[in-house]
Amino acid sequence: VIEHMEEEQACVFGNLVLSTFCPHILIVSTPNHEYNSILHRSSTEMNISTDEALEEIAQAQPYRFRNHDHKFEWTRLQFNQWAVDLASRHNYSVKISGVGGAADTEPGFASQIAVFQRKATKEAPKECSQEDMSLPYKVRWKWGVN
């Protein structure tokens, strides 16, 4: 839900989380801005019978953000570039997916999801070493630990 912060903050967020906290998995979701044309059309009460008429309306009306408190929304290309660049800088793999709609049909998924997974290494990256990090929180529960 990175669209609720400023775009620059979303970029800082990704770098900060992957370099400081070094999670094994990070899941990030955000709207696909390209899908807004479908949502916009479905929210207006129009009776259109031809694909050409739909295309004319989609081009004539600017796409809005989905929610009034969204600070930005990325296209599939923008989200993919951000995720791939972030993953490569921090030794993570990333898989792009989504929900609502379909990947192989335009304009893709309604919401985009990036699943970052830390690549296996013999030792944790130096910047992720728990020994050097003073944590401002206490671990209350760990998955799989009784």
UniProtKB/TrEMBL annotation:
Family statement drawn from the similarity comment of this UniProt entry: Belongs to the methyltransferase superfamily. HEN1 family.
A Gene Ontology BP annotation from the UniProt entry: RNA methylation
E.C. numbers: 2.1.1.386
Protein name: Small RNA 2'-O-methyltransferase
Keyword annotations from UniProtKB, A to Z: Magnesium, Metal-binding, Methyltransferase, RNA-binding, RNA-mediated gene silencing, S-adenosyl-L-methionine, Transferase
Cofactor(s) in the UniProt record: Mg(2+)
GO (cellular component) term, any one: cytoplasm
Reaction catalysis annotation: small RNA 3'-end nucleotide + S-adenosyl-L-methionine = small RNA 3'-end 2'-O-methylnucleotide + S-adenosyl-L-homocysteine + H(+)
Origin: domain of life: Eukaryota
